Amino acid sequence: MQSLGLNMPNCIKYNLIQHELMHALGFYHEHTRRDRDNYIEVMWQNIPPVHHLLFKLDDGNIQNMPYDYSSIMHYSNYVYSKEPGLPSMVPKPDPSVAVGQSIGLVDMDIRKINSLYNCDLCRKKLFAPGSFVFDSSSSETIVETCFYLIQSTYKVLLQLAEINLPSSPDCIHGYIKIYDGVSTSSPVFLKKTCGKVVVPPLTSSGNLILIEIGKTQPFARMRFIAIYETVKYGATIMTENEILSSPGFPSFYPNNANLYYSIVAPVGNRVSLNFTFFKMPPSPMCFVDHLTIYDGPAINSQVLGTFCGAVAAPTSFISTGNVVVLHFQSGDTKGYNGFIADYKFVNSR
């Protein structure tokens, strides 16, 4: 029996609550598992004796799982040290390995829970930046729903490539669905989609994106590549009459910005885009700061134009389909306001 507690207000935090819930589920600290001396060295001389018990080995079930420096159950390097700058633990063999974190459960934590409780579920938690390939082999008979939760420190920019899902009416044989948030009750970025499709870059409104992958037909081959990164700016826009601008407008935009605005109109509509201000530095072929506008959902869609101070400013555009993507990048130049634009949806007929 473990005695657990959460003191207010300091302990009422997402990561601390998850840490204590792991204890309630029967898990000990990662740095106290019986094989920990193969992976870390406890610096006993830097830890007050009153805290030595917190680093004592536990004889828990490690479930044949690898040691995880990033587990929510692993203390950081300097926890309970006598003085700032003195480590309480040093990783082996590479002392520079990051130890512990305050974000929340990682994928290995979830795998351990599923293993301990015999939960054969397809669930993964990923942290930006990174990538993965989802490839459900054509010989695989498993029928299930998988969830990939992607988290970042700011916003998540998700790009999907080489999407190849079975085509079927209402996507009954397999699909992908994407949410702007932590659960299936979050706003929908991409409704159930199947076949060979192109998805625009998706930028979360918060720091989480959830991917749902449903496979309902045995032997169906499903494959796509997901690339995700942390960004401070950008948006995926599905409602009308908002204003688009470079970061910080009307002030100067920051250096080294990289953002996508993906404007998605309802099917049967087009996007009418109108720029009311544009100011960027000149550069040969717009190599440094620039804005590129794509007539479609992918970066290999037709380019409506790439603009900077050396090229005539963009004015007005109407897309041929229901998606327009704006990609803005800045370098190290300073003193420019960027752009501002408005848009509306117009019927294709």
From TrEMBL:
Q: Catalytic residues per the record?
A: 20
The Peptidase M12A domain sits at: 1-120
A Pfam family it matches: CUB
Residue ranges of domain CUB in the record = 122-231, 233-346
Q: What does the record note about the cofactor? A: Binds 1 zinc ion per subunit.
**What is the top EC class of this enzyme, as a single word?**
hydrolase
Cofactor dependency? Zn(2+)
Q: Which GO terms describe its biological process?
A: proteolysis
The molecular function terms of the Gene Ontology recorded here are: metalloendopeptidase activity; zinc ion binding
Could you identify this protein by its name? Answer: Metalloendopeptidase
Q: Which species does the entry assign this protein to?
A: Engystomops pustulosus (Tungara frog)
Taxonomic classification, please?
Answer: Eukaryota, Metazoa, Chordata, Craniata, Vertebrata
